[in-house]
Amino acid sequence: MIFHGRYRYNNGAYRPFLTAYVLSADNRWMKYSFLIDTGADETFFHYRSINILGIDTSQLEILDDVGGVGRYSIPYFHWNTEMKLISPEGTKIFGGEVNVFLDPHATDVPLLGRDVLDTFVA
Questions:
Q1: Which residues are CB-neighbours of 115 under 8 A, at least 6 positions away?
Q2: What range does the record give for the signal peptide (predicted)?
Q3: Per the CATH hierarchy, to which homologous superfamily does domain 6-117 belong?
Q4: Are the C-beta atoms of residues 79 and 97 closer than 8 Å to each other?
């Protein structure tokens, strides 16, 4: 399958983005524009996703063992959901854990990491 992304001007540079749909807590597919981040081990959603996806954070385990280039810990949590990618050849749905940042300053765009990207053969 070939998925068509686009380069979007973001923070002073053109960066690769891919549209995907994420299953919300109330079973609606929500459209997201992900930054393709081959340096990220895992996929991360921005803080605003808590409200967008209707995530109940009251019983979640908070983690802080992730850091980017700045090497500082950023609080986040795991959340089970599904992601859907659509191409002219069909649809691919992934299920499993994704991560959601609790710091509103961690990122302003969701990051599509290698946990999803590695399921494809180049």
A1: 41, 42, 43, 96
A2: none
A3: Acid Proteases (2.40.70.10)
A4: yes
Show the tokens assigned to 16: 């690769």
Six token digits for residue 30: 């929500």
Taking residue 95's Cβ as centre, other Cβ atoms within 10 Å add up to 9
Which is it for the CA torsion 10, 75, 31, 86, positive or negative? positive
- pLDDT tens sequence for the chain (122 residues): 788 899 999 889 999 999 999 999 999 999 999 999 998 999 999 999 999 999 999 989 999 877 666 667 889 999 999 999 999 999 999 899 999 999 998 899 999 999 988 887 66
C-alpha distances in Å from residue 120, one per residue of 13, 22, 94, 117: 26, 19, 12, 6
One DSSP character per residue, 41-101 reads SS-EE-TTHHHHTT---TTPPPB-----TT-----EEEEEEEEEEEETTEEEEEEEEEEEE
In single-letter form, the type of residue at position 22 comes to V
